[in-house]
Amino acid sequence: MDFELRHAREKLEREQRDRMQRAKAKADRERRAKAEAARRREALEASHRERRLDAARAQEEAEKKIEEVMQLGKGVSFSHMFEALRYDGPGDKIKLPPSSFKELSDEGALDKGPMYFRLSMVRDTVPGATMEQDTEEATCCGVLEFTAREGSAELPMHVWNNLFRSDTPDVPLIEVKYVSLPKGTYAKLKPEGAGFSDLPNHRAVLETALRNHATLSENDIVVVNYGQLQYKLKVLELKPASSVSVLETDVEVDIEGSDSVLDNEENQHVLVPLATGKVESSVVEEGKFRYYKFSVEESVSEKVASGRANIEVKIDTDASGGDTDIYVSRHPLVFPTQHRHEWSSHEMGSKVLILKPWDSSSVSGVYSIGVYGFKGTSKYQLSVAIKDVSSQRVGEHASASGSVDADSVLCRNCKRHIASRSAHLHEAYCMRHNVACPHDGCGVVLRKEEAADHVHCNRCGRAFQQREMEKHMKVFHEPLQCPCGVVLEKEDMVQHQSSACHLRLIVCRFCGDTVHAGGEPVDARDRLRNMCEHESICGSRTAPCDSCGRSVMLKEMDIHHIAVHQKS
User: Fold this and answer.
1) In the chain, fewer beta carbons within 10 Å around the N or the C end?
2) CA 162, CA 488: separation in Å to the nearest integer?
3) SS3 call for 301
4) Is the peptide bond before 240 cis (omega within 30 degrees of 0)?
5) Structure confidence by residue, pLDDT tens digits, 477-487
6) Within 13 Å, how many C-alpha atoms sit on residue 221's CB side?
């Protein structure tokens, strides 16, 4: 009996304990479920709250962007993304699609004068990118026309290179914003290489290049072309803003010196100053130039023009090395070449070149010397000297005016006048050891052992030593092609590029710029006045006469003064 009661009691206790555990587990599950539901509810509310905040921030940024665009555009809101395409053209004016013209017209941009735009790259946000990096990948420009296909903008090389400096994406996207730019008052530029400051009137050359530009932005690279040479200048500073308009305004320009070293072998087009009477030593490789410059003062030019002094350019070349040629020109021809120069010397080894200006009134000025490596690597010493030849000329004049001795006979071999008492002895010796060159017009008397080395060019008739003939044929008779397409030999090419080539550089007598000459002018009167095509067009501009105020064409101004204002 006791056993059954105890067993029943234990069973009841176990059942009660199990019920309590189940009730406790159920309470725990309900508590965890409530906590999870509360957590999910809080997370959902936080997500909704974050989305509302993001939407508010996006709306605020959009409003700020619209406000910024409106401020930049002075009331004109234009900001679109386009695919960037390249086109070959000068300057910084882009092409936009026709729809952009309609939108800008509706915004009233056409009534605000020239239109300017700020271009920036569109790329994924990179963590850690700075505002400075973003600024470097933006530039400003003008607009050329609205003929691009929809969804794209065509950029000239200047804008493309300044916008995509590091790398070009597969599909370059850019953001184009209409902006209002102030007129520039000051610009500081710095050449990236040496040689730009050596150009004659380099500020006028820069001004001519900037005529194709509507804007300038800091850190932009401006490319200036001078003939076949190209110079790059970086914009360091602008006033009154970091991007300015250069249309219809006067900009004060400062050009800093370049950091490039003068003896940089990769840059051939650098003028090394050469003082008169000083010797410059250097090395030139085959097929390359080394350039120098020297000046002739007014006091010296008078002596040279009157024939009392000569300008001598002397080069001593190491005989064990290669061979050099020298080419000399007077500015504005800055860098003389094989087929564009005023004086040249092609003798083998050391040589002396005497400069005799074509116009005695234009002796003074700056001259350039080009030392060309004709063969091998050549070591040389170059110098320029002013030689007084007044005493030499007097002696030459006296000997030339002297009369032939009456008691003399003419040697039949060397054609020299010999005293009659020794004529037979001289003639016998002369015929045994000397021989006269049989070439028509030559008649040079040579030693018989040297006669075999004396040859004449079968094309021009010039006399040389045998070892010089190969160089002569290569320099003077090898066909050369002018950039304009004409193929001529050296001497004809020099004449062509100095007076006939429409791509030759001249200094315009009316605007002062260094420009391509162009072809012959249409007006026969301009041809009679020795004007080129550019000067004929440039001189057609009118200016008020200083005396009467009447508007007269620049090329007719001198005739106007003579005909109207010159007193009889």
Assistant:
1) C
2) 40
3) helix
4) yes
5) 888 888 888 88
6) 17
Q: Which of 346, 399, 342 is closest to 365 using CA atoms?
A: 342
Contact yes or no for 369/313 (Cβ under 8 A): yes
Output DSSP code: residue 146.
Answer: S
Other C-beta atoms closer than 10 Å to the C-beta of 175 total 15
473: three-class secondary structure by DSSP: helix
Cross-strand bridge partners of residue 229: 226
Instruction: Dump pLDDT digits (tens) for 214-251.
Output: 999 999 999 988 777 888 999 999 999 889 999 988 88
pTM score: 0.62
Q: What is the residue type of 220? A: D
Q: Of all helices (H) and strands (E), which one includes residue 122?
A: none
Strand order in the sheet with 343-345: 271-273, 289-296, 365-375, 323-330, 343-345
Sign of CA dihedral 31, 32, 36, 37: negative
d(CA 152, CA 164): 16
Distance CA 104, CA 116 (A): 11
Q: Find all residues with CB under 8 Å of 250, minimum gap 6, and list them.
A: 185
Of 190, 193, 195, the residue nearest 293 (C-alpha): 195
Lateral strand order in the sheet of 186-191:
221-226, 229-239, 186-191, 252-255
What does the alpha-carbon distance between residue 26 and residue 32 come to, in Å, rounded to a whole number?
Answer: 10
